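To: structure subgroup
Subject: Chain for Friday's discussion

All,

I'm putting the inputs and outputs inline so they're searchable in the archive.
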Amino acid sequence: MMKNNKRIKKIKKSINLTKLYNIDEIISLLKNSSKVNFIESIDVAINLGINPKKSDQNVRGTTILPHGTGRNIKIAVFTQGENISIAKKAGAEYIGMEDLSEKIKTEGIKFHTVIASPDAMKIVTQLGHILGPKNLMPSLKLGTVTTNIEKAIKNAKTGKIYYRNDKNGIIHATIGKINFETNKIKENFNVFLKSIKKSKPPQSKGIYIKKITLSSTMGVGLTIDQSDLF
């Protein structure tokens, strides 16, 4: 912990945390300040001008990042019959019905996405208390409740991300790795931001996107100057 605190203090001395930066500057600063012995993720936090207590103002959606997230996405698939072999071939890590449900309850297996065929939802809904708080509950709107299991798995593996604002009206997402080329991080960011803008609730008034912050896994958060954005 002491080592981490010293590292953060050193970063803060070399970076003005109160300044607004254009995205190229932020990416460069994050890359140059990454001194840990693993490849950090690039994370974005978007503070929205919504009232998260009102259901008609909550923002939820999906988008496919052109260059993926750089993460090894682990997928749990609830399905049966011939879809089992389809899911295996597509690369899903965990596949099943009641057996998979029990494994999640007792073993606490870790995964990033849950996909379900419609006939499996009666089992999945029983896991609401586990999947819900982690925003992993599959839904038709997100394309994670589907008869096309193969397509859903491939989308998730190649860069499809799911987003939803938290109780403070902030959306968090990973848009790449610190070792991605700058243009790839920017392209992922622009696609993600465009999707957020398209998802603006009609009931949201005033400034919709109040603040955008980029950070690395172990780094500090830097605020984007939105005047430079599309």
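Points worth raising on Friday:
The chain has a mean pLDDT of 91.
DSSP finds eight helices and ten strands in the chain.

D.
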